[in-house]
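Render this sequence as a predicted structure.
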Amino acid sequence: MSRLFELIYRFRAFLVFILFELICYWLMVRNNPYHSSSFFHSSNQLAGNVYEMKENISGYFSLRRVNKELSNENAELRDELYRISRPVMIVGRVDSAKVPEVSFNYDFISAKVINNSVDKTHNHFTLNKGREQGIEHGMGVISPNGLAGIVRSVSDNFATVYSLLNSNVYISSQLKKTNTLCTVNWNGRDPSVATVLYVPRHIKVNVGDSIITSGFNSVFPEKILIGIVRDLTLSENESFYNIKIKLATDFSSLKYVYVIDNPIKKEKEQLESEADKNEQR
């Protein structure tokens, strides 16, 4: 404490000078409208910059919470969207105004990607949710932009997913503008490009056309975007196009996904399995 007093005493003249300068400045600002306006404008701008910096810092540290909230909200919105979009079931000749509605049965569970690979032949990623959160083997997984993969295995609180970047994964698809059925498979090389198989040569296909899910299985709803046609070739002796698509999902930056739950999936698959068995008899 004595050193502090010694320091103040040593610089007493300078400190008194600073004090008088501040008093003079205060009097000038108080009694001069121009200087007063300039001072308060500058102080407001300084305060605004400080508050903005504070908000940016606090916003940065709350990004994880905000992203989680947005992911959950998007899952709810997707769920609501599919509940609103209802197909109709027509039996015989009935009044179209009285046709019963059959709602989609898809629910969406948001999850975070905690591990991911894109540089292997058979890539998969890991989610921070599992059996206790309602995730089961075989469920479809989509990103905010498009199709992502199929659940491979599940523990109580985690799940691994076969990525679309897996050469063993084949997705039932269709050409959006013509509803032509096809299949999407990754060629094991470029993580942003996949191959579209079995599009007949008589179908008109253009660069920029969309490839979407067909809805012909119980894993994915219809019309989930898979990719956009990037280039295509058709040899004279070939029956099908050779089509490359730019994948809608950027797997190198995959953070949050939505797992698709179809409550009637098992019932549908069991019925189809029984039909196949009956045909083989």
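Summary. The mean pLDDT is 80. Residues 107-271 form a domain with the Thrombin, subunit H fold (CATH 2.40.10.340).
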